[in-house]
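Q: For a teaching session next week I want to show students how multiple molecules come together into a single three-dimensional assembly. I've collected the sequence lines for a complex. Could you give me the predicted structure tokens for the whole thing so I can convert them for display?
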Amino acid sequence: MSLHNLSYVCSHLKNCSMARVPITSIQYTKLHLGIILGLYRHGAISHVQLGSRKGPDTEPVQVTSENISTRRLWVTLKYYNAEPVLKNALLESKPSKKKTMKLPGLKRLIEGYWAENTKPLDPGDLLFLRTDKGILEAREAVELQRGGQLLCRFTSLR
Amino acid sequence: MSKRALYQLLRTANRPRIHGNGCVKAQIARESTDATKALSEKISSEIKQEVAKLEFPTIITRSDHIQRLSKYYSPKMLKSIIAAEQTVTPDLWDKRKKAKPLFPLSYADDLAKHDPFYDLPRMPWTDFSEPHQPVPPPSDLPQTVPPDLMNTDVVEAELANNRGISRDYMRRLIVRPLVRKLVSNVTRLGKIRSFYSLVIVGDENGMIGIGEAKDRNESSRAVMKAKSKALRNMFYIPRLDNRTIFGSLENNYHGVDVQLWPRPPGFGLRVNHLIHEVAVCAGLKDLGGKVRGSRNKMNTIKATIEMLRNQVLPEEIARARGKKAVDIKKTYFSARK
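A: Of course. Below is the structure for the complete assembly, covering every listed component.
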């Protein structure tokens, strides 16, 4: 699957964080939804809402083939002590080079060691991967004993 | 005249108003007509007696005011002044545009009484009957003489008296003069060479201080001055398990690119020799690191200290995320007390 749009999402979220933008919209796809919900579960973002190009929906709107093209995911970003909670968003698998990792490699990353040319996880880092159980964070994947394709990493340190 | 009638008169007349800058301005009673002039003269003498017993004794009566003006102005000018003053009614006075002081209070207060919260001095010698400005705390060092940086005893005394640091603690501190070099200032008289020194001071338990100083004649004097400065600039750096940093750190400071990463216990300090010294002084035992770009001694040390100081703790990240951070080792593997 293409990671081209994911790269845009990562840079857009980083740019918005740096500019201290409160709410922003991204393309509504299954991949993006999985990652955004992962960020929400881990408290890195404040709200997730579905909406149109103009803004989030105040009332639930059913997604049909007629309105799917205008649907956007609206993300409310978090800021604490004048600093953004999401400081950096990096791609792990790039469109030019995809990265997959099995369970032993993921365990090493979580413990703070290099594995398969991948930087270890710092405190506050969220590494998302695509598994058969859906899009999971690295620690969640290890809990469910799964590996998969690494997608992107969000950092809180710098 | 009854007290009730007097108070009624004073209420309808002008009460002393408090200006924004806190001064009490005297108010002038309204001019009475010809018919009541005699009565007002009688009342004014009574008022003066009563006013002396009141809270705001600074009321000037109309006749006093006119008498005072007549000393300085001609009768024609006096008449126009009185006519102008008469245009100001109590309603107008109440609706007047109040002067905005430079640093206004956010609450309404005449500053006449000591407020238990906002008025700062609470020392045993504070006279609470009057509001005060903050009083500096007592100090046994002479305030006018600046501390002599050459004389370490004076600096130690300052730390002991003003900050409560014990002299025993100061004696056990590690002092490392890491940089000693000659610097020159080129003037019209030629090159003026000085000795420069950068000294770090640490207690091997999280506290570290950095000081730089110069001396024209002796390098040892520069070191002593820098040590004094470092002693006064000490601060705490957080450490994981008192041995390493919390997450990986990266800092770019004036061309020096320093990267540090935490390492497991027993790893040791496998870093640049200058970072090694800083780590030993601070009490860090396990570190890995790399200095890229410039390796200027002064800037490397400053870069390292800056990033050790500005570490982001896992608790802070958790607070920002709205999550609870738990140290698994302490919770599940700590020995019973």
